[in-house]
Amino acid sequence: MRGPLRRLILTARAAIVVAALPIPASTLLYGQTTAPAFVGVRTFLGAPYVPRLETIEADFAVLGVPFDEGTWGQPGARYGPRDLRENSQEYHFYLTEGFYYIDQDRTVLKGKRWVDAGDVEVFPTVPVQTGEKVTAAVRTILGRKALPIVIGGDHSITFPVLRAYQSPLTLIHFDAHLDTWNAAPGNLDHSSWVNRTAALPHVRKVVQVGMRGLANDQEAMGNARKIGSTIITSEQIHRKGAAWALSRIPASERIYVTVDVDVLDPSVAPGTGTIEPDGLSFAELDDLLKGLPAKGRLVGLDVVEITPYRDPSGRTAQTAVRLIIDLLGAAFP
Ligand SMILES: [Mn+2]
Fold first, then answer.
1. 111 secondary structure, DSSP code
2. Domain range for 315
3. In principle, which of 94, 180, 190, 324 could form an S-S bond with 154, CB 3.0–4.6 Å?
4. How far is the CA of 57 from the centre of ligand 1 (A)?
5. Is 241:204 a contact under the CB 8 Å cutoff?
6. Total count of domains within the chain
7. 230 strand-pairing partners
8. Cα of 68 to ligand 1 centre, how many Å?
9. What is the β-pairing status of strands 203-211 and 230-233?
10. Where residue 285 sits, what CATH number does that domain have?
11. How far away, in angstroms, is 6 Cα from ligand 1 center?
C-alpha cells in the first residue's frame, strides 16, 4: 500500500499508540485541582464524580436536581446544576487544600472529602416520580453520613429533599418570596412548597429571611402566619443589619438552609426566574449564612432558582458557590 492511504493508516496507528500510553493519575479527574480552571470534565469544584450513591464516602455530597417544571415565572433553573458546576471551577484549586480568607488569615475545609453525586434523573411531566427520586437520593446520602448539598432546580425541589430527613429540624429559608401561596389541590410548585414542607412532622420551625417585593400578598402572609413562621424582611436587614436579623433566629439542635438566589439583589444575582429589586447585598447574605452555625448544627442545604440564560456572565452561579463555601466553612471549619 502506498501514498496518502498508507500515510493515513500510519498516522492513525500512531494516534492509537499515544492514546494507549499510561497517563499519570495526577492528570486524571482526582488530580484536577492541580490543573488550570478550564481543564477537565465539570464536576462541582472538581470533586470526584460518584454517581453510585450507595458507595459514597465523603463529608459533603453535591446532588444536582435539574428540574424547573414547578415554576410560575421564567423557567431555566433546570440548567442550574450545570451552571453551578461550570462556575465552581474558579475555586476548584482549594477543594482539598482548603479555602483561605485574607481578612482572618485562616483556612477552612482543609482535607474535607467532597464528592459530586451527579444529577437526579428527572421524569419530564411526571413530577411525583422525580420527587421520589430526589427523596431516595438524599436518603441514601444521609445514610452514608455525608452532608447533602443540593443544587437546583426550582424551589419546589426542597420539599422532596426535606422529606428524606427524620430528626427534628428548623428550616431557614432565604428568599424574596414567602412561597406559601395556595397551590392547586395536590400540586407542588415553587410558590407553595413551604406549606407542604412545614407540614412534615420533623420540620418544627420555619424562619423566612429576605422577604420583599410586590409579589408577596395577604394570601401568602395568611398561610405563613398559619404555619407560625418567623419573617425577617429585606428592608429590616438593610436598616438594622445582619447581626440584628441573626438575633431574631431561634437556636435549635439542627438547621437546614435553603437559599433561593433571588434573595440577593438582582444587581448581584440577575440569573434567576423571579427578579425582585432591593434584595440583600452579598455581604448581608454572607454574614447571615456565616452566623447560622451558631444557631444549630447544619444538616443540609440547597441553592435553587439559578437560571443561567438570564446571566451569561455566570456571576449568579459563582456567587452561589462562594456562599456555599462560606456557609460550610463556618459550620465545619
Ligand atoms: Mn423566590
1. T
2. 39-331
3. 190
4. 33
5. no
6. 1
7. 207
8. 13
9. parallel
10. 3.40.800.10
11. 63
- Rounded Cα distance between 169 and 162, Å, is 10
Which is it for strands 114-119 and 147-152: parallel, antiparallel or unpaired? unpaired
Cα 82 from Cα 293, distance rounded (Å)? 28
Model confidence, pTM: 0.90
Query: Which residues make beta-bridge pairs with 264?
Result: 280
- What is the DSSP code (8-state) at residue 94? G
Q: Look up residue 179 and give its three cell numbers.
A: 412561597
User: Is 313 contained in some domain?
Assistant: yes
The rounded distance, in Å, linking the Cα atoms of 256 and 298 is 6
Q: 210 alpha carbon to ligand 1 midpoint, in Å?
A: 10
| Nearest Cα residue to 305 out of 270, 269, 275, 261 | 261
Host H or E run for residue 237: helix 234-240
Residue with cell 482548603: 98
Cβ of 26: how many Cβ atoms within 10 Å?
A: 11
Question: Do the domain assignments include residue 89?
Answer: yes
Alpha helices (runs of H) in 148-216, residue ranges in sequence order: 158-162, 193-198
Compute the distance from residue 177 Cα to the ligand 1 centre, in Å. Answer: 5
Number of C-beta neighbours around residue 299 at 10 A: 18
Would you give per-residue pLDDT tens digits along the chain (333 residues)? 455 555 555 555 544 444 444 444 444 444 455 788 888 899 999 999 999 999 999 999 999 999 999 999 899 999 999 999 999 999 998 888 999 999 999 999 999 999 999 999 999 999 999 999 999 999 999 999 999 999 999 999 999 999 999 999 999 999 999 999 998 887 899 999 999 999 999 999 999 999 999 999 999 999 999 999 999 999 999 999 999 999 999 999 999 999 999 999 999 999 999 999 999 999 999 999 999 999 999 999 999 999 999 999 999 999 999 999 999 999 999
Distance 174 CA to ligand 1 centre (A): 8
Is residue 4 a part of any domain in this protein? no
Q: Within a domain: residue 21?
A: no
Query: What is the distance between the alpha carbons of residues 329 and 282, in angstroms, rounded to a whole number?
Result: 16
d(CA 102, CA 182): 46
